[in-house]
Amino acid sequence: MAEQIPVQFDLQAEQSFASFYTASHQQVIQQLTDTASGQGEQQLYLWGKQGSGKSHLLQACCLRAHQRNLSAFFLPLDKNQPPTPEILSGLETFDLICIDNIEVCAGNKIWELALFNFYNRHRENNHKLIVSADCPPNYLPIDLADLKTRMNWGLTLKLQELSDTEQISALTFKAKNRGFEISPQVGDFLRKHYARDLPELWSLLPKLEQATLVAKRKLTVPFLKQILAEDTEL
Question: How much is the pTM?
């Protein structure tokens, strides 16, 4: 029996275009916004390294579609626990589909065939499709040649890696959106001494926010060292 499509998905309202640190991605954001609004390209392929913000932007696209009274569905693919291909059944009826981490399907014959058939049904309905991956479409290890061709049908967008200065700016920007402040000095300390990996930095934000709320203190470098030391002792 085919897996029933959930009526709702976990749309995170805080992951909007407004809460995304744009940096040098103005054109990418504009293309995504146009497609999510029901205009622009019919198909977009967004790629970039882990932590570059692909999932955030796909969620933002679905949020924008809903704001325009369009139906949208966000489908994240987890390599550790991927859904069955039946999840694609009926998704062609949505105005916008966003599939995150599509590289998870590469090399899986059943998934590749299901995606190929979905592409055809969705395109016939003239609906919008945005997929994300960690590499360009030509580098996906897809065995089904016709599916690989379809990956190149639309416009390919790349999220550039952030410079060291942009990483600090992104960190302070995200903290501000959560309601607390990270100074450039604190951001620089985190990047140099805690983690240069963006996903690690993002995952630290809720902990820092909670610590500042409990202590009712601004986040200084000495306070940050105290927080990190206490976390290490746990």
Answer: 0.86
